[in-house]
Amino acid sequence: MLKATISLAALLAAAPALAADDDEIIVTALGIEQPRDEVGQAVTVIDAETIRTRQSVSVVDLLATTPGVRFNRSGSLGGVTGVSLRGAETTQTLVLIDGVKVNDTSGIGDMYDFGNLLTGNIRRIEILRGSNSIAYGSQAVGGVVNVMTGTPAAGFAGNASVDYGYSDTLNAKADVSGGSGIASGGVGIAYFNTDGISSAANGAEKDGYENIAANAKLKLAFTDTLSLDLRGYYIHADLDTDNGVLDSTADTSKSDQYVGYAGLNLALFDGRLTNRAAVTWFRMDRDYTSAFGPYGYSGTNLRFEYEGVYQPVDQAKLVFGYEHERPDYDFSGFGSTESHRADMDSVYALAIVKPVAGLSLTAGARHDDHSQFGGATTFGANANYTPNAGATNIRMSYGEGFKAPSLYQLYGADVGNAGLRPERSKSYDIGFDQRLDGDRAILSVTAFRRDTKDQINYDYSIGLYGGYNNLDRTRAKGVEAMLALKPVDALTVTAAYSHVDARDRNTDARLPRRAADAVSVSADYVWPFGLSTGATVTMVGDSFNDATNAIRLDGYAVTDVRASFPIRENLEIYGRIDNLTDEKYATVHGYGTYGRSAFGGVRVRF
């Protein structure tokens, strides 16, 4: 039945879909603002209205409703959560928060753990699928997830909400922003606390979770051509965990994430040349308690970035830059300590030209020099052609990716391998977007393929404990389709489907925890008297938990319903029921997932 439903959804993708107005500017493709008609890569935008309407708590639950995304979560909300784009490893997804690279340098593969990234005061998410190391360097093999907080209001504005529900869950958030004279800025805070569920699927003891997040932005526009941007983001998370898949009361996890950005912007030659020089800083501290004793990891990444954009004529633009980053990794516990550092310098250049009306061509190259494994050069190119002023867009892209071995993979006690080579990939895709009926409908379809070599995996045949080695060649290929319809102003329907065939080319086994088929359908309707009702159905096919395909994870279908009603112009009540049918499923073998749960709350805007 699941396969039949997924096939039906794929056929429905032959119908048109909607593009929202604020979907027209993309910043993730090259790290600069671009009209969508100039972007030849596959990018999906989750805007502020969608985030508000869906009422999702976790960012990963929003990502799961977009094409090409697969995720796995180890147990309750807050548990380790990885995101795979187009069948790539979860360690091959580059993540940005307000422009800062936040992949964890203390993690096994520099993976960013989405478990503690809640929607809070996030206002926009862009997901770029496909290898894109030219603009971003290491990690961008599968693609890029770019998470952004709100832009400060021109005058003064604020938002606040609080809701309560299943398992004594409290979720509250607030933000204010404004501007006066040369200054504009905003601050926000979010608090989440729950008794949770058992992380172990067969456990009885609930694992509680607390999350506190804060964000701030300040922009000083000294002149029309000179400005200073300051941004900060902080997350503290405290989670009770289980000993793997065994119920436990002794295991806990605490983490602190610090994100900082300071950037100076200068425009010269009547705006033809813009310059951005920035320092970014990310730090992750993770502390654990277990039956074996306490232990902890700490990772820091300090980066310097310079980016220039030169546009001599309207039909041509050159983007160029230099980056230096210094990741470090520290471990302490079980009577030992480790500390390792690395340095990486990068230069890149891209050209965007529009030789004829409707055609945009982009090509570029990047060279990264790593203090441990040497240099790596990557290339990329893409094209976007519209014969009818944006009603139809034909896209194609080629991108190369590379991922440097993490410090843990290089030097981790007993398992590290200082001779590891970087992972390399080549990614191809072709697709189109078609708008119909005065932008009430748009259809997006993309076919893709990515080949990866020298993939780093854990090899149990090495030494006494196993270790890391460049073992695998992998391939992922498939198709993505996305639609949204707005037949009348009151009704919005969106759907996403993707087929991802991700395999180990040495064994032909399917890569673990990556279902071949997934579909998500959402519908929201605003009734004449103001009530808004909606539902999201997400269906995921079967997958395997392990690389040998010995442990199967059954497919599942989860239905979420929601409603909101305005009491006054700036005040509304809202509520939702997650997993309405109480579906039993797992994204990681042996770990629990939430059953049916209900929540309700109130929102205010001013």
The fold-level CATH name is: Maltoporin, Chain A
Query: What do we call the CATH homologous superfamily?
Result: TonB-dependent receptor, beta-barrel domain
Helix content: under 10%
Structural class: mainly beta
Poorly predicted runs are 1-22
Give the CATH level 1 class.
Mainly Beta
Pfam families: Plug (PF07715), TonB_dep_Rec_b-barrel (PF00593)
Protein name: Outer membrane cobalamin receptor protein
Domain TonB-dependent receptor-like beta-barrel: 166-580
Membrane topology: Multi-pass membrane protein
Write structural notes for this entry:
This protein is mainly beta and about 600 residues long. The protein has a single domain, classed as Beta Barrel (Maltoporin, Chain A). Helices cover about 5% and strands about 55% of the residues. The protein has helices spanning about 1-10, 50-55, 60-65, 135, 405-410, and strands at about 25, 35, 40-45, 70-75, 80-85, 95, 100, 120-130, 145-150, 155-165, 170-180, 185-195, 210-220, 225-240, 250-270, 275-290, 295-315, 315-335, 335-340, 345-355, 360-370, 375-385, 390-405, 425-435, 440-460, 465-485, 490-505, 515-525, 530-540, 545, 550-555, 555-570, 570-580, 595-605. Strand 30 (about 545) and strand 31 (about 550-555) form a beta hairpin. The protein is globular and about 65 Å long. InterPro entries: Beta-barrel_TonB (IPR000531), Beta-barrel_TonB_sf (IPR036942), Plug_dom (IPR012910), Plug_dom_sf (IPR037066), TonB-dep_rcpt-like (IPR039426). It is found in: Cell outer membrane.
